[in-house]
Design a protein that fits this description.
164 residues
Length: 164
């Protein structure tokens, strides 16, 4: 992936964070490594996703800063039928399904028949650079955590929403 695209994703995440897609300690910040962070479901502040994700999702950063090389926890709310084309990340991605069914598959081509449906309570870890794709069945909420920066590299450049 070109360095400028990666920087664009990081900048978009920082913008989403700055626009309220965050929550954390009682005083409204998203916490530091010394803060005790407690988040109730009704305090999650959803905001638009970065331009690297297809339109329709909502993102909330619970703690950390996904645009920096630090630990982060964020959630994504995906509408029914939401698809993320084949892509990969330069760091490990950890996903816990909180609500709905998150369908994931491995590979360079989107093939829902070869994917696995993961109901609420499921967990999946994709090692860095593993090509994978996803689909939401019903409204789906996932929680992602890892060490940033969180970036998305599409296998096929034509699938990248920033190119449209």
């Amino acid at each position: 992936m070109r360095k400028s695209m990666r920087l664009g994703i990081v900048a978009a995440l920082a913008l989403a964070i700055g626009n309220g897609a965050q929550v954390g300690a009682e005083k409204g910040g998203h916490g530091t490594d010394k803060d005790h962070v407690m988040v109730r479901p009704d305090n999650v502040k959803w905001g638009p996703p970065p331009p690297a994700l297809p339109a329709g999702a909502m993102i909330a950063v619970l703690t950390g800063d996904p645009s920096k090389a630090v630990p982060y926890v964020m959630r994504a709310k995906l509408p029914d039928g939401y698809r993320v084309p084949p892509h990969w990340h330069p760091s490990d991605e950890n996903v816990t399904v909180i609500k709905g069914t998150f369908v994931m598959g491995k590979g360079d081509k989107f093939n829902a028949d070869a994917a696995e449906a993961l109901p609420a309570g499921s967990f999946v870890r994709m090692p860095k650079e593993m090509r994978h794709f996803a689909l939401a069945k019903g409204e789906t909420i996932i929680q992602l955590h890892g060490i940033g920066p969180f970036t998305i590299n599409y296998v096929n450049a034509a699938d990248d929403p920033r190119q449209k």
